[in-house]
Amino acid sequence: MRIYMETYGCQMNEYDSGMMKAMLRASGHTLVGDAARADAVIVNTCSVRERAETRVLGRLRHLRGLAGRDAILGVVGCVAQRMGDALAREVKGISFVVGTDQYALLPDVLESARNGLVRFETTVDPTESYVARPDATEAGLCEFVSVARGCDNYCSYCIVPYVRGRERSRPARAVVREVRRLAELGTRDVTLLGQNVNSYRDGSADFADLLKVVNDVDGIERIRFATSHPKDLSEGLVAAMADLPKVCEHLHLPVQSGSTRTLERMNRSYAREQYLSLVDMVRERVPGAALTTDIIVGFPGESEADFEETLSLMENVRFDSAFMFRYSVREGTKAAKLPDDVPEDVKIRRLTSVIELQKAITSELNGKLAGSTVEVLVEGPSERDPSSLFGRTRTGKAVVAPGPGALAGRLVPVRIERVTAWTLHGAMAENGRR
Ligand code: SF4
């Protein structure tokens, strides 16, 4: 069958789509880039915010109209898991719904759909370990590798534990096998993914041990990971960041709020002071590390004083960048039972304030890099200026410099000359190494 797949949401969804595509190719199907030419249209969905879910439903209706009358329409991912067969009532003409724990069934479900059978596969099996991913046959320079699925933390605003199930770690040998395969296919930069990689466990091995074995894979130049829950950030992991040469000096450590009172209601299991001590530990052990974060403003009960604490924490830590959101109710979560009592105009004002502050901090930190030389992994030509190359520093910052995009895959030193909002501009110091 010719299959068209669309993906919404987080890095984990992107990874899962790659895995499903590999499975479908291995079953003899072909991936196409146009829904109108496809025999089956599959949408991998995100339900992290109510608005994202509404948008996906609209997109499904649109794709139903776009695809041929006989084309199969399937929904996978978090909305599939959350809504199950209710999806078929929302969008007419759905042939299957496959939840986040049942991707191994996808080739079989497609075959059923070809025979006119409508299937809903949304069981979450806590004993199920991992969907085996067929060996990759193609790979980019930068790839994701899943190391853990699900989450046990139940932050009060988050739907993830309900749609992705309990936390399960992938055996280290399977992770290393996949990283080796990707390296053979040309990957140089690998991001290890899990909802909370810090609580990774394979027997007695923890996430720091996993980083050590991935660090030994020939061909891989850079290792990143996401996401880290502050309550599980260990000294061992920070030491691994400091000591392992391929592990990049970048930590995404979502704080969500600077107020301990709000953090408690969010069920985040750490206080403001504990978070700040972790930041001190990282700064001490990994000099020059970039810190990034997630921030929610307007959580139920957030007073002006609580919000001021978020601003002061941002001033104190000086994150390199942040994903910033205003709270919106997510049905099915604990926080949905709390009164959504921060008025919308206040949420918008607070969001504007954190964005403005973060912009100022980001440009100040980036500005300090002017005049320094950074190591850049070239990803290819710059989209805006094809005569320049585009790449990233070890800390994940975007760099543009005159030079051929054909250097893709090389590590080149770039001297930074000027800085715009999110990009460092410079000149290549030499041709670099492969
Ligand atoms: S750690 Fe909290 S925010 Fe992150 S996925 Fe788990 S429940 Fe959601």
Summarize the structure.
By secondary structure, the protein is of the alpha/beta class. 34% of the residues lie in helices and 23% in strands. It contains 13 helices and 21 strands.
Which homologous superfamily in CATH is the superfamily of the largest domain? Methylthiotransferase, N-terminal domain
> Could you name the CATH class of the largest domain?
Alpha Beta
Count of β-strands: 21
Number of helices: 13
CATH fold title of the largest domain: Rossmann fold
Report the β-strand fraction as a percent range. Answer: 15-25%
Largest sheet data: 6 strands, parallel
Query: Domains counted in the coordinates: how many?
Result: 4
Oligomeric category:
single chain
Low-confidence stretches: none
- Which CATH architecture of the largest domain would you pick? 3-Layer(aba) Sandwich
Helix coverage percent: 25-40%
Q: What's the shape?
A: globular
**Strand order, sheet with most strands:** 2-1-3-4-5-6
Mean pLDDT: 93
Q: Structural class, from helix and strand content?
A: alpha/beta
Distance between the termini: 39 Å
Spatial extent as radius of gyration: 22 Å
Molecules bound to protein: iron/sulfur cluster
Describe what you observe in this structure:
With about 425 residues, the chain is α/β, with parallel strands linked by helices. It has four domains: about 1-120, Methylthiotransferase, N-terminal domain (Rossmann fold); about 140-250, Transcription Regulator spoIIAA (2-Layer Sandwich); about 280-370, Transcription Regulator spoIIAA; about 375-430, OB fold (Dihydrolipoamide Acetyltransferase, E2P) (Beta Barrel), CATH 2.40.50. About 35% of the residues lie in helices and about 25% in strands. It is built from 13 helices and 21 strands. The strands form six sheets. It has a six-stranded parallel beta sheet with strand order 2-1-3-4-5-6, with helices on both faces. Strand 5, helix 5 (about 105-115) and strand 6 form a beta-alpha-beta unit. Helix 8 packs parallel to helix 9 and helix 12 packs parallel to helix 13 (about 345-365). The two termini are about 40 Å apart. Bound molecules: iron/sulfur cluster. Iron/sulfur cluster binds near residues 151, 153, 158, 160 and 229.
